[in-house]
């Protein structure tokens, strides 16, 4: 609670704010909803700031400044005031508690770690309840293995056991900078030095894909100069994964394998000539 005492004026103002009776609270809520009366909004939120401070204190063990938690809780309080429907006959504090807690929890999830955690309802429940459930299981039985603890927590929260193990690992250790030296030397190699990616850069991948598409289109246009037999031989010899043999193609076409070779060479020369005539400025070889 050290951070709270650093702002005594805020705490004093919240604790000295008068409680609202049910009818007074309802009247103020109606004035705010129907007339947008700023004074009514101020009185409602001021009266419930003690609730914000109390709920913020429950999350102080996550290591974030409690003044920031209170600020986020206040945002949730304002959101609750904007959405509150007094005609439902529900106390504002009951309704606001959910919005205050949700706002604080969202802030913690965004800022607790530089690595963003899960945002599903199950992942949030795991993040905020794992330590409490683990401590309770440890008190109930000291003989449980880690796997058994994970199994019971997973069953309790309705998440996968692997998610429990991953979240436990995240909560057990702080974030580590990739630029931090592995050795004690100031200029020693960092973790980043061991994460070199030998794959091409994105711009190189994109350039290669564009060039391949362009050359494919050039070849498709050039193949129009071939007759049917030449086209068939080129496709089965050069453009198929298996690559038909001269002998097999000769049997299919009823010619010798030497004749197939001659037709293939002639077709390749025709393709080369067609490509050079259309794209010589591109350096086609």
Question: Would you kindly provide a written description of the structure presented here, covering whatever features stand out?
Answer:
The protein is an all-alpha fold and 285 residues long. It has 3 domains: 2-111, Four Helix Bundle (Hemerythrin (Met), subunit A), CATH 1.20.120.1810; 121-172; 202-282, Winged helix-like DNA-binding domain superfamily/Winged helix DNA-binding domain (Arc Repressor Mutant, subunit A), CATH 1.10.10. It is 67% helix and 0% strand. The protein contains 14 helices and no strands. The protein is elongated, with a radius of gyration of 36 Å. The termini are far apart.
Give keywords:
285 residues; mainly alpha; Arc Repressor Mutant, subunit A; disordered N terminus; Four Helix Bundle (Hemerythrin (Met), subunit A); 67% helix; elongated
Q: Architecture of the largest domain, according to CATH?
A: Up-down Bundle
- Give the CA-based shape: elongated
Low-confidence stretches: 1-6
Which structural category do the helix and sheet elements fall into? mainly alpha
The name of the CATH topology of the largest domain is Four Helix Bundle (Hemerythrin (Met), subunit A)
The level 1 CATH classification of the largest domain is Mainly Alpha
Number of helices: 14
Task: Classify the helix fraction into a percent range.
Answer: 55-70%
In percent, how much strand structure appears in the residues? Answer: under 5%
Number of strands: 0
Largest sheet report: none
Order of helices and strands: HHHHHHHHHHHHHH
């Amino acid at each position: 609670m050290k951070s709270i005492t650093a702002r005594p004026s805020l705490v004093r103002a919240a604790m000295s704010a008068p409680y609202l009776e049910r009818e007074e609270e309802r009247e103020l809520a109606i004035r705010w909803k129907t007339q947008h009366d700023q004074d009514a909004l101020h009185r409602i939120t001021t009266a419930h700031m003690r609730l914000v401070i109390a709920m913020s204190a429950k999350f102080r063990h996550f290591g974030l400044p409690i003044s920031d938690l209170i600020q986020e809780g206040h945002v949730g309080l304002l959101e609750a005031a904007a959405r509150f429907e007094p005609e439902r006959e529900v106390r504002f504090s009951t309704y606001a508690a959910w919005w205050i807690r949700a706002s604080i929890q969202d802030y913690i999830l965004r800022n607790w770690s530089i690595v963003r955690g899960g945002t599903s309802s199950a992942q949030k429940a795991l993040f905020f309840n794992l330590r409490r459930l683990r401590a309770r299981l440890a008190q109930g039985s000291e003989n449980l293995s880690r796997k058994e603890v994970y199994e019971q927590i997973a069953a309790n929260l309705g998440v996968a056991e692997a998610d429990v193990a991953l979240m436990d690992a995240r909560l057990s250790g702080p974030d580590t900078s990739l630029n931090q030296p592995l050795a004690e030397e100031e200029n020693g190699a960092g973790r980043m030095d061991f994460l070199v990616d030998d794959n091409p850069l994105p711009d190189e991948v994109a350039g290669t894909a564009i060039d391949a598409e362009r050359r494919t289109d050039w070849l498709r246009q050039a193949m129009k100069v071939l007759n049917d037999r030449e086209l068939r031989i080129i496709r089965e010899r050069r453009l198929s994964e298996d690559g038909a043999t001269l002998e097999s193609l000769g049997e299919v076409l009823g010619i010798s394998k030497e004749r197939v070779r001659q037709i293939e060479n002639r077709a390749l020369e025709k393709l080369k000539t067609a490509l050079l005539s259309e794209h010589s400025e591109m350096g086609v070889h």
